[in-house]
Design goal:
The protein is mainly alpha-helical and 160 residues long. The chain has helices spanning 3-24, 50-69, 89-93, 99-108, 118-130, 149-159, and strands spanning 33-37, 76-80. The relative contact order is 0.13. Pfam families: adh_short_C2.
Length: 160
Amino acid sequence: MTEEGYDRYMDLNLKSAYFTVQKSLPYLSDGASVILIGSSAAHRAAPGMAIYSAAKAAIISLAKGLSLDLLSRNIRVNTLSPGSIDTPVFGKLVPEEHLEQVKQTWIDMIPVGKQGLPSDIGKAADFLAKVCRFSLHRPSCTAGIWNDLSAAADSLERIC
């Protein structure tokens, strides 16, 4: 990877998240919720994905740091770390003739045996923003790698 390519990955995956949060802070009410999008790649190495994985791991670390920085305003910061989500990005990264094979490789690594949908991420983010409330007596909610939203909701209700 070139230095320019590295910078593009970090700009897209880390820098943009940081500055979006920074610029939005004056508009967020105390007690608001910030939800960043990580990736299962931050938790599991895969060939050819070192820089992407590092950028997404940095998002998780950023969320932890921002949570502490925004504690005085009771602003919750969480990260969703989805597994493989069926989006058009696959078609941009993988030649058409290999697309289904690559998708199947990712599906084979997921315990539920299917790719998530963008709407799954939206539902999980909505759940975190509306249902989970910050408390000084228990940890803030953390969403992990879930492709089954109902299981995620049940798990989060138990810890929130």
